[in-house]
């Protein structure tokens, strides 16, 4: 009998071009997983060294519980090995080591990473003991870095030490400070004026312990984001590296926010940290997202709105929430400008009640060129004056003059939203599109067609308006 020939197995994946294999490696969750592929074959041994990004996190994969010295040493050796075996320059370097390592070790990793000339660096660390953190000279002065993100778990960054340099981060365009304790002196942010190309500043869940004036002044800044979600709680690292939530003690402290950025295009403020405001030189602002938190609405009703609106009457897009509406309500006759001539898009996330309706009417009255209205109505509340019972001729005139598009976000077929849709359809002579965006797939399948049938029977001032239903991912 003839012996059957065994068919040779062909490794078709390994025969793919390097560019395809690099794409496969890039789709893996972490650098740790990419490095493990080096054992597959000779072809795969050094493929990972050419990846454009490094992402190492001590809380996953290689070392999940670093309770012993050998594990810390293993992680240190792994980071140095990954950085020293690079064959091509880096585009992005991301490292999370929590509070397992001291600053001298972290500085060594930063220096090794900078030898690869990455354009983006994201660092999450909190060295022990809890001293102020000073960024290494090689990071502050490197002339190729474009994006820097720091998450320091409530450690204080020594901004004052940066003032020793004439120029900081020569090519940096984006700076994100996450969970960083901000300086308590007004000159703490003077370093911004020494960053010649900075365009985007993000302050995310940053901590302010005492009285301060946070002054953000920059001739180059185009986007500013100040966000402190969940004002009542903050995260803190324990000695074993675990994160715990702690509650803030509410203390009446004067915290003053000063913004002076003549080239600022977009401002996002979602915070309850500050209670005094001073906005200057915002002549270029086009989009404002103002989501004050409850503390601001309670303690400083009207102050945020009265200071902001006179300085941004030229903006084109405004997004506000229910607490902004609360801030505006008592001051609505004085805080709104005579005209918002450039406002074309208004996004409102609120509970529709009497005073929310009044504030919305005030904005509509001073927005003669409004084209798009996006509404997210959080809950239904009974109103004394009925559903959109508007007799103001001026308001109706605005709705009929320019409003072209209305979108209901988080729509679930509620009666109140349908009444608002009816009013807008009956008065919007220029309406071209009304969109109902659903989030819940089950509700969408059950109710959306029935809802569209109801809306299609409403009287319409515009003969060419389109009714659209949409399920958002």
UniProtKB/TrEMBL annotation:
Signal peptide: none annotated. Residues 397-470 form the FBD domain. Coiled coil: none annotated. Transmembrane segments: none annotated. Gene3D superfamilies: Ribonuclease Inhibitor. This is F-box domain, FBD domain, Leucine-rich repeat domain, L domain-like protein. It comes from Artemisia annua. The lineage of its organism: Eukaryota, Viridiplantae, Streptophyta, Embryophyta, Tracheophyta.
């Amino acid at each position: 009998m003839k012996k059957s020939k065994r068919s040779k197995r062909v490794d078709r994946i390994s025969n793919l071009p390097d560019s395809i294999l690099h794409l496969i490696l890039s789709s893996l969750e972490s650098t740790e997983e990419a490095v493990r592929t080096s054992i597959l074959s000779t072809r795969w041994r050094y493929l990972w060294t050419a990846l454009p990004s490094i992402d190492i996190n001590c809380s996953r994969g290689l070392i999940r519980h670093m309770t012993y010295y050998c594990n810390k040493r293993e992680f240190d050796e792994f980071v140095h090995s990954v950085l020293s075996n690079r064959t091509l320059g880096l585009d992005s370097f991301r490292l999370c080591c929590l509070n397992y390592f001291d600053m001298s070790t972290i500085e060594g990793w930063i220096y090794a990473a900078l030898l690869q000339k990455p354009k983006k660096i994201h660092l999450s660390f909190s060295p022990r003991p809890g001293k102020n953190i000073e960024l290494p000279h090689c990071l502050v002065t490197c002339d190729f870095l474009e994006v820097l993100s720091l998450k320091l778990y409530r450690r204080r960054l020594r901004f004052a030490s940066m003032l020793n340099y004439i120029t900081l981060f020569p090519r940096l365009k984006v700076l994100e400070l996450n969970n960083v304790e901000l300086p308590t002196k007004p000159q703490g942010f003077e370093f911004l004026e020494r960053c010649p190309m900075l365009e985007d500043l993000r302050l995310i869940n940053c901590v302010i312990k005492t009285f301060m004036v946070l002054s953000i002044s920059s001739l180059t800044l185009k986007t500013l984001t100040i966000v402190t979600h969940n004002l009542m709680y903050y995260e803190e690292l324990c000695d074993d590296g675990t994160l715990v939530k702690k509650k803030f003690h509410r203390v009446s402290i004067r915290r003053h926010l000063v913004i002076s950025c003549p080239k600022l295009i977009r401002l996002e403020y979602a915070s309850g940290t500050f209670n005094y405001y001073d906005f200057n030189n915002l002549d270029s602002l086009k989009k404002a997202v103002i989501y004050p938190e409850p503390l601001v609405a309670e303690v400083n009703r009207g102050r945020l709105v009265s200071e902001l609106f006179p300085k941004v009457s030229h903006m084109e897009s405004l997004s506000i929430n229910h607490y902004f509406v609360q801030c505006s309500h008592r001051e609505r006759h004085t805080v709104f400008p005579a005209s918002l001539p450039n406002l074309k898009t208004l996004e409102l996330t609120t509970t529709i009640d009497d005073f929310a309706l009044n504030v919305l009417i005030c904005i509509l009255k001073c927005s003669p060129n409004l084209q798009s209205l996006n509404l997210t109505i959080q809950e239904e509340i009974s109103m004394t004056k009925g559903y959109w019972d508007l007799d103001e001729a001026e308001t109706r005139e605005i709705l009929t003059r320019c409003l072209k598009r209305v979108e209901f976000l988080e729509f679930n077929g509620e009666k109140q939203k349908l009444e608002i849709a009816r009013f807008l359809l009956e008065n919007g002579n220029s309406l071209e599109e009304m969109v109902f965006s659903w989030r819940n797939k089950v509700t969408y399948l059950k109710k959306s067609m029935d809802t569209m049938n109801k809306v299609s029977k409403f009287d319409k001032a515009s003969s060419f308006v389109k009714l659209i239903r949409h399920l958002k991912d």
